[in-house]
Amino acid sequence: MKSATIGGVKISWLGHSGFLLEGEGKRIYIDPFELAEEPEFDEKADILLITHEHFDHCSPDDIRKVRRSDSTTLIPEACSLNFKGDARRIAEGDVLAEGLEIKGTRIEVVPAYNPDKPYHPRGLGVGYIVELEGLRIYHAGDCDFFPEMEDLRADVVLLPIGGTYTMDEEEAARAVEVISPKVAIPMHYGKIEGTDGNPEKFKALVKEKNPDVEVIIFDP
């Protein structure tokens, strides 16, 4: 299984940290990377969210596969890649204008950083909270556990567990504990060197302290 429908939103794992969210008649891609094939035109992005400019999150080849001429792309201020068309540079803390909506979808921009590691300093990247079908879906980007997570609210969390560059299984389980979502989905493991997280370990750690949280592990 590489997709699940939660509260009317279809969440598909594209591999690594890439996801496709489908709800309210919209398709929202986040960090597509090494896509097996190019989607059909009507399956491409209404909205494309990029968390930061590292190659496994901001992949020009994969961005070209999913973007249409009318796709709205959100990129962090620190991202050096230039985009044609509707691309907006954003920073953590932004709740975007136009009635707090992008094409009818509310998106919050939240911090994503390593407090004690050099790989993702604060300001390099962001995370996103997307509201679809009444659900708040949090994509954490690349980060370790950071204090501001205690103020986040989300029904579904997409959390890195790879270790080295991001949270490992223990830190990600701690994030689940403080955010208290309904569903947790691990990501950013098993694709590149230094991302050796074990999703079953993450699931067991979550269930120890939060047995009511559903943990969904997609097949690689």
Could you characterize the architecture of this molecule?
With 220 residues, the chain is of the alpha/beta class. It has one domain: 4-Layer Sandwich (Metallo-beta-lactamase, Chain A), CATH 3.60.15. 13% of the residues lie in helices and 30% in strands. The strands form two sheets. The chain has a seven-stranded mixed beta sheet, with no helix packed on it. Strands 8-9-10-11-12-13 form a six-stranded mixed beta sheet, with helices on one face. β2 and β3 form a beta hairpin. α2 packs parallel to α3. The longest helix has 11 residues. The chain is globular, with a radius of gyration of 16 Å. The termini are close together.
Q: What is the H/E string?
A: EEEEEHEEEEEEHEHE
CATH superfamily: Ribonuclease Z/Hydroxyacylglutathione hydrolase-like
Radius of gyration: 16 Å
* Gross geometry: globular
- CATH class categorisation: Alpha Beta
Oligomeric description of these chains = single chain
CATH architecture, please? 4-Layer Sandwich
How would you characterize the largest beta sheet? Answer: 7 strands, mixed
- What do we call the CATH topology? Metallo-beta-lactamase, Chain A
- Report the β-strand fraction as a percent range: 25-35%
Enumerate the spans where pLDDT stays under 50 for 5 or more consecutive residues.
Answer: none
The tally of strands reads: 13
User: What distance lies between the first and last C-alpha atoms, to the nearest angstrom?
Assistant: 9 Å
Q: Return the structural class.
A: alpha/beta
- The largest sheet has its strands arranged as 1-2-3-4-5-6-7
